[in-house]
Amino acid sequence: RIIKFVKDSTIGGVILWNIGEAYLPATVNGKVVPRRDMMLQIVKNVVNLTPQIPLKKIKGSIFFDSNNNGALNNGEPFLSGWEIKLDGEGKSFKSISDQTGNYLFDSISPGIYTISLTLKSGWQTTFPSRVTPYYTVRVDTLSEGTIFNFGVYTSNAIEVSLSQGWNIISLPVKVTDNNAKTIFPTAISNFFFYNSSGYSIVTNLENGNAYFVKFPYIHKLLISGELILSDTIDVLEGWNFIGSISKPISVQDVITIPPGIIASDFWYQNSGYVVSDSIRPGIGYWLKTSSSGKIILKAN
To answer: Would you give the DSSP letter of residue 141?
Structure first.
C-alpha cells in the first residue's frame, strides 16, 4: 500500500512523500532501514530540496549634491525626510530617509524591483543619473553591502534646524505645494496655528505665520522655493506667532507699524523657550505687541 507522509518544510511549504511499503528496499543510500520511523527520516534526508534564497535588504542614502556635479563629494550633507519607493513583483513599498539620510527596505523576497525617489517641487535628481534617475535591481543576485544612493540639487535651498520634540516652525520660501507634511515630512504630530481664538490644526502652511509641531529627533531639512527677502505680517494686541523670511535678520532691524508696539523679546522653542537675537529662516517666534499693527521683516 501507499503511505503518504506530509511534514512542514524548514524552507517554507510542505514536503510530501509517497512510499510503497511492499516494495521498500532494504537500504536507502547505503543505509539500512530496520524500522518504518527510521525509514521515513532517511527518506526525508535524501529528498532533493531546492535551497531557500535568503531575503535581502535594499538600502542607501539621499544626499544634497550642492555643486550639482552628479557625484557625492566630501562635505555634502545627507538629507532627512525624502520618500523612496520600491516597486516590483506586484508589490510596492515606501521608506522615508532618517536623520542621517539613510533609508532601508528589509526582508525583500527574490524578484526584479525598481528603486525610485519621490522628487520634491523645485528639485532635480543628479545621481544615479539625470536621464534615468532610478535603479533596477535583481534581488536574488544582489551582493551584501550594495548601496543605492540618490543625489538631488536645487539652487534655492534653505536649511532649517529642528530639535527633538516640539518646535515652532515657519515657511521661509514661496512654494507651489504648501502642504505641511510635504514641506516637513519628518513631523510626528499635527501642525498647530495660534491666534486670538486659540490653537487650531492646519494642513497647509502660509508665509508669515508660525506653527507648533513635533519631531522625533534632531535633524536638518532643506526647503526649496522662491526666496522671500521681505514680508509684512499682521499682528494683534497681545501674543502673536511670527514667521520668517529666507534670510536671517537681527531683531533690532524689525520694523513695526505703528512704531514701538513690540512689547516682548522674540521667543523660539528649543527644549523650552529661548530668547532670540535674530529671526532665522524656517523658525517661528512668539512676540507680544502692545497694539494691533504690522511687523515688517526685510533682509539687508
So the answer is: G
Q: How many angstroms separate the Cα of 29 from the Cα of each of 42, 43, 48, 79, 106?
A: 9, 9, 13, 59, 40
C-alpha cell at 254: 524689525
- Quote the Cα angle for 262-267-295, to 5°: 35
Question: Is residue 20 over pLDDT 60?
Answer: no
SS3 271: coil
Task: Return the pLDDT at 39.
Answer: 52
Cα–Cα dist 9/277, whole Å: 68
- Show the cell assigned to 211: 506653527
CA distance 145 to 160: 32
d(CA 71, CA 75): 12
Question: Grid coordinates 535678520 are at which residue?
Answer: 249
The pLDDT tens digits for 205-260 are 999 999 999 999 999 999 999 999 999 999 999 999 999 999 999 999 999 999 99
What's the pTM? 0.77
Concatenating the DSSP letter of every residue in 175-193 gives -S--BHHHHSTT--S-EEE
Taken in order 67, 71, 73, 75, is the CA torsion positive or negative?
Answer: positive
- The predicted-structure confidence for 158-170, as pLDDT tens digits, reads as follows 999 999 999 999 9
**Residue 184 in grid coordinates:** 516637513
Please state the φ and ψ torsions of residue 54, each to the nearest 5 degrees.
-65, 150
